Amino acid sequence: MKKALIVWGGWDGHQPKEVAGLFEEVLVKEGFEVEVSDTLEAFADAEKLKALDLIVPVWTMGKIDDKLVENVSAAVQSGVGLAGCHGGMCDSFRENVEWQFMTGGQWVAHPGNDGTNYTVNMKHSSSTLTEGIADFEVCSEQYYLHVDPAVEVLATTRFPVAEGPHSLNRAVDMPVVWTKRWGVGRVYYNSLGHQANIVDMPVVKELIRRGFLWCAEGKKSAAGTNGGEA
Questions:
Q1: What is the average pLDDT score of the chain?
Q2: Edge-to-edge, what's the strand order for the sheet holding 3-10?
Q3: Domain that includes residue 64, residue range
Q4: In the chain, how many domains are there?
Q5: What pLDDT does 230 receive?
Q6: Does the pLDDT of residue 227 top 50, yes or no?
Q7: Rounded to 5 degrees, what angle do the CA atoms 145, 186, 132 make?
Q8: Burial (Cβ within 10 Å: 0-12, 13-18, ≥19) of residue 35
Q9: Residue 62's CATH number
Q10: pLDDT at position 44, please?
Q11: Could you identify which of 37, 80, 104, 177 might form a hypothetical disulfide with 42, taking C-beta atoms 3.0 to 4.6 angstroms apart as the criterion?
C-alpha cells in the first residue's frame, strides 16, 4: 500500500483543513494509507519522509525552518512525490527559495482577485496527465506566478484578463498546471484551488488526482528505469 502525508495549515483564507480533507478522500479512494497533520513538524523525521510515496503540502504564507525543507527536499530527491495546488504549495514559504526551486514556482499576483472569470487551456503533449480533458472555464483567482523554465507545462491561462499594471505588456500564457523533477522525484503543481469549492470541481479534482498518482509512482519508475519516464 502506498503511503501519503498531507500537511495543512497557514492562512485560513484558503481553507486548508477542508482542502486537505478533499485530498485525503481522493487518496484513500485510490488505496493510499494517508497521514494528515496540521503541524510542519511532520517534516522533522527525514527517514520517515523517505519511506513515503507522496507528500502533499496544503500550507499558505508560513515560515518554515530550513532543516524541515531540507528533509522534504531530500525525500523528493530520493523518489518521493510532491504534489499540491494554489497557494498551498507555491505560496507556502515566501522567504524560502529552496522550497520555491523544488516546487517550480512562486505566486506573485492575482489581478482581479477572487471572482475572475478565465479559461484554462490544456496543453496536450507527451504527458498522459491531461488526456481527454478539454479546456474549461473557472471563476476564481487567476494566478500570476514566477515559474521555473525547467517545468513541463500541462495547462495555461491567458493574461491579461483583469486590468492592472501588467495590462500594457504583451499577452502571456501563464502556466496553470506543471510537472518537474527534483532529483529522481516527481513534482506536480496546479494553481487552481483558492478554496475547497474550486478543488471540488470535477475537472480540477480529476487533474489533481492524476497528479497525485503520477507523483506517487516516482520511486518505482526511478528504480526500474534510472529516472523514469516523464
A1: 96
A2: 33-37, 3-10, 54-60, 81-85, 185-190, 172-182, 152-159, 116-122, 136-140
A3: 3-225
A4: 1
A5: 47
A6: no
A7: 75
A8: middle
A9: 3.40.50.880
A10: 98
A11: 37
